[in-house]
């Protein structure tokens, strides 16, 4: 893992789109190189050629050809390719709202290991994974038909993968409360919401919530809510014809001026410019303290030395 402060910062991704996939072939970019980050989606990486180092929370593992990496929502993870000239991989990132059958699992459980060894040798896994990748280029179906087909593929794939994973229930208070807080924010960000209200709803103290956001996630509660709102605004700008003022209200802003200021801070452009020039792949990132990152990396290196 990198040592510089800039490269060591954990970032939180907030994505406007519910589903994203890609396949990266040999000598193509982007390679499997990503600093420590977390997001509210599941992430699947199927390594089809070469090898890489993967981190998930305090676990460090070497991925070999055919292995699959599965990160649960809000699980800190990172990757380092070992030989960029040889590596090929496929990636899927999906919001848990596409998988309502498993939201309880994602909220209350964590994999003992993020790796499924030799996943590509499991016929249904490899086939479903590549059907999802190919679904991105489907042109003969309507958007609704394509989304329905993709949701079916994704549900079947996750069902198969979980058969090959050992899960532990998150009984630890810190882990359980973190997931509950992030889930609550994701579901209520468009409403008038405060730290006090959040504490009352989840029966957590303001002190604990402040520690969770500022020390663990490295972002203030206010900034986290802004990011969720702006991510949803990006999605609406790209996929609807609603006026900017309507979108501002829909994501929780009572003042268009406050919305425009928050939008520019997160994306670097105005909402109107974003609608004209940006794509759904835009990511909104929170940068988390390098001290937190260092503890995670040190813990991972102690757990598995390879």
Q: What would you note in describing this structure?
A:
It is a single chain. With about 300 residues, the chain is of the alpha+beta class. It folds into two domains: about 5-170, Jelly Rolls (Sandwich), CATH 2.60.120.280; about 220-290, Homeodomain-like (Arc Repressor Mutant, subunit A). It is about 45% helix and about 20% strand. The protein contains twelve helices and 13 strands. It has helices at about 5-10, 105-110, 125-135, 145-160, 175-190, 195-200, 205-215, 220-240, 245-250, 255-265, 270-275, 290-305, and strands at about 10-15, 20-25, 35-40, 40-50, 50-55, 60-65, 70, 75-80, 90-95, 110, 115, 165-170, 285-290. The strands form three sheets. The protein has a six-stranded mixed β-sheet. α3 runs antiparallel to α4 (about 145-160), α8 crosses α10 and α8 crosses α11. The protein starts with a helix and ends with a helix.
Distinctive features:
about 300 residues, alpha+beta, Jelly Rolls, Arc Repressor Mutant, subunit A, five-stranded antiparallel sheet, 13 strands, globular, disordered N terminus, disordered C terminus
Q: What is the CATH domain class of the largest domain?
A: Mainly Beta
CATH superfamily of the largest domain: Regulatory protein AraC
- Strand runs, count: 13
Overall body shape: globular
**How many domain modules?**
2
Largest sheet: 6 strands, mixed
* Separation, N- and C-terminal Cα atoms: 13 Å
């Amino acid at each position: 893992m990198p040592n510089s402060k800039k490269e060591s910062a954990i970032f939180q991704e907030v994505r406007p789109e519910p589903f994203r996939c890609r396949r990266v072939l040999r000598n193509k970019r982007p390679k499997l190189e990503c600093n420590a980050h977390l997001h509210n989606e599941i992430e699947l990486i199927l390594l089809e050629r070469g090898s890489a180092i993967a981190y998930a929370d305090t676990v460090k593992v070497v991925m070999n050809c055919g292995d699959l990496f599965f990160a649960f929502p809000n699980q800190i993870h990172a990757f380092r390719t070992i030989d960029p000239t040889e590596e090929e991989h496929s990636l899927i990132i999906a919001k848990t709202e596409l998988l309502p059958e498993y939201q309880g699992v994602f909220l209350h459980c964590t994999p003992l290991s993020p790796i499924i060894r030799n996943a590509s040798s499991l016929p249904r896994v490899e086939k479903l994974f590549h059907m999802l990748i190919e679904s991105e280029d489907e042109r003969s179906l309507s958007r609704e038909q394509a989304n329905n087909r993709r949701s079916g593929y994704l549900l079947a794939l996750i069902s198969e993968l979980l058969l090959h994973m050992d899960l532990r229930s998150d009984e630890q208070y810190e882990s359980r409360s973190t997931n509950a807080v992030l889930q609550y924010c994701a579901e209520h960000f468009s409403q008038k919401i405060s730290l006090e209200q959040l504490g009352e709803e989840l029966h957590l103290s303001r002190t604990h919530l402040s520690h969770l956001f500022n020390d663990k996630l490295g972002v203030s509660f206010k900034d986290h809510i802004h990011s969720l709102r702006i991510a949803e605004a990006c999605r609406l700008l790209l996929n609807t014809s609603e006026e900017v003022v309507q979108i501002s209200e829909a994501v929780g802003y009572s003042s268009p001026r406050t919305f425009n200021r928050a939008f520019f801070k997160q994306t670097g452009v105005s909402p109107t410019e974003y609608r004209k020039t940006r794509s759904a792949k835009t990511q909104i990132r929170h940068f988390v303290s390098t001290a937190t990152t260092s503890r995670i990396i040190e813990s991972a290196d102690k757990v598995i030395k390879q």
